Amino acid sequence: MGEAPAFIVDDLLGDYPNGLGLKSKGHQTAVDAGHKTYVIGDTDGESALIGVKVLEKSTGEWIIPAVLGTKPQSSKRLSALILNGDRILILKGGSAHDDCFWFLEVDTPFVREQRNKLGTEVVAWSRGVVGDTKMPIVISGPSGVGKGTLIAKLMKEFPSTFGFSVSHTTRAPREKEQNGVHYHFSERSVMEKEISSGKFLEFASVHGNLYGTSVEAVEVVADAGKRCILDIDVQGARSVRASSLEAIFIFICPPSFEELEKRLRARGTETEEQMQKRLRNARAELEQGKAPGLFDHILVNDDLETCYKSLKKLLGLDQVVHSILESAPLLVNLPQDHSVSKIGQKIVIGSKEASENRYVTCLYGCLSFLLSH
Ligand SMILES: Nc1nc2c(ncn2[C@@H]2O[C@H](COP(=O)(O)OP(=O)(O)O)[C@@H](O)[C@H]2O)c(=O)[nH]1
Ligand SMILES: Nc1ncnc2c1ncn2[C@@H]1O[C@H](COP(=O)(O)OP(=O)(O)O)[C@@H](O)[C@H]1O
């Protein structure tokens, strides 16, 4: 294989006029996206985290954007590449495999929505994941339909494959629920503050309480190399659909409304008043769940074992001998001295320290490394 054309984005900084406050080149990198230039790196010389500044090219105005998501620690050597015109892949030289590449969303539907909501420039970080991470699974359905039961069965049968996204909620814990396992139980004022600081991928008010999926909840599962399961309501599913997190959306229906009420009563976790509220909301949720375009699959949970079998089938698990982690990801630490370029659908990371280029296939939010020869 010949030498891939290397493109080190740091080189771009040489093209900038003086007086832009840019520091030593390796600590920063600049990428053009439409009529804006994003300068990423050590932007104030003080923070230990990677900063972002945006240059509006038509006016020459610098903007400090609102930054959502967990910011990466700064690095001595950064390079970057724009993907699909809406997100920037950032590589941190000399970093460990679990910290070496990140995505900065600059114009995805999620960022655009946040920009409209906040009325300011917005960017959003997400950590890249090495390995063949499959798409997260979003499971929705009315209270008492059996979402938790089905998810528990899946996690029990495939413990090394699936990880549960532990949501935050302001509702009180039920008797057997553990903080940090079933939910992160939170005060409303704390959660509201965290919502405005951009901690959540999505959030919604459900049955009178706040519920939200933090960016970290999904990252923890991905970092463990597992496939993430989200148990969220229909509003949450809609937000995830609008975000750049690609997922499979499954809606669980009861065989009848009477059966739903029976299950909810038999579970015995709600007061009569709460139960009535959940049943009222169930009617609307069932209608929204069946609306076209939101859910990829609708399963009726009549007989539990039959429904569980159907769930496994649509997740491609029905034939699987229990060793999902067959192909262990090839873990590499990104060398300090590297270059990055895009050739067709492939992203090529060239390394002067290694004799060969490392070929990387880019899936969204996930890079799987394939060594080339
Ligand atoms: N949007 C959103 N909904 C959530 C989240 N976590 C849980 N939910 C939903 O909130 C609703 C109430 O959940 P919960 O109080 O545990 O009651 P249950 O559905 O009766 O088990 C359910 O529809 C959940 O799917 C979250 O992080 N975001
Ligand atoms: N297919 C089923 N048939 C009968 N009962 C079920 C079935 N699926 C779940 N259940 C029971 O219904 C109740 C509600 O299930 P749960 O998983 O807590 O629902 P959700 O998480 O959707 O609120 C639980 O007591 C559970 O044991």
Provide structural commentary.
- With 373 residues, this protein is α/β, with parallel strands linked by helices.
- Helices cover 24% and strands 31% of the residues.
- Strands 5-9-8-7-6 form a 5-stranded mixed beta sheet, with helices on one face. The chain has a 5-stranded mixed beta sheet with strand order 10-23-22-21-20, with no helix packed on it. It has a 5-stranded parallel beta sheet with strand order 12-17-11-18-19, with helices on both faces.
- Strand 15 and strand 16 form a beta hairpin.
- It is elongated.
- It starts with 27 loop residues before the first strand and ends with a strand.
- 38% of the residues are buried.
- Adenosine-5'-diphosphate is lined by residues 141, 143-149, 263, 266-267, 301, 303-304, 307.
- Its EC number is 2.7.4.8.
Main attributes?
binds adenosine-5'-diphosphate; alpha/beta; 31% strand; five-stranded mixed beta sheet; 23 strands; disordered C terminus; 8 helices; single chain; disordered N terminus; 24% helix; 373 residues; elongated; binds guanosine-5'-diphosphate
Secondary-structure map with pairings?
Layout: E1 28-33, E2 36-41, E3 51-56, E4 61-63, E5 66-68, E6 78-83, E7 87-92, E8 101-105, H1 109-118, E9 122-127, E10 129-130, E11 137-140, H2 147-157, E12 162-164, E13 167-169, E14 183-185, H3 188-196, E15 200-206, E16 209-214, H4 215-223, E17 227-231, H5 234-242, E18 248-253, H6 257-267, H7 272-290, E19 297-300, H8 304-314, E20 338-343, E21 346-351, E22 358-363, E23 366-371
Parallel strand pairs: 5-9, 10-23, 11-17, 11-18, 12-17, 13-14, 18-19
Antiparallel strand pairs: 1-2, 2-3, 3-4, 6-7, 7-8, 8-9, 13-16, 15-16, 20-21, 21-22, 22-23
Bound molecules: guanosine-5'-diphosphate and adenosine-5'-diphosphate.
Residues 141, 143-149, 263, 266-267, 301, 303-304, 307 line the site of adenosine-5'-diphosphate.
Keywords: ATP-binding, Kinase, Nucleotide-binding, Transferase
Catalytic activity: GMP + ATP = GDP + ADP
GO molecular function: ATP binding; GMP kinase activity
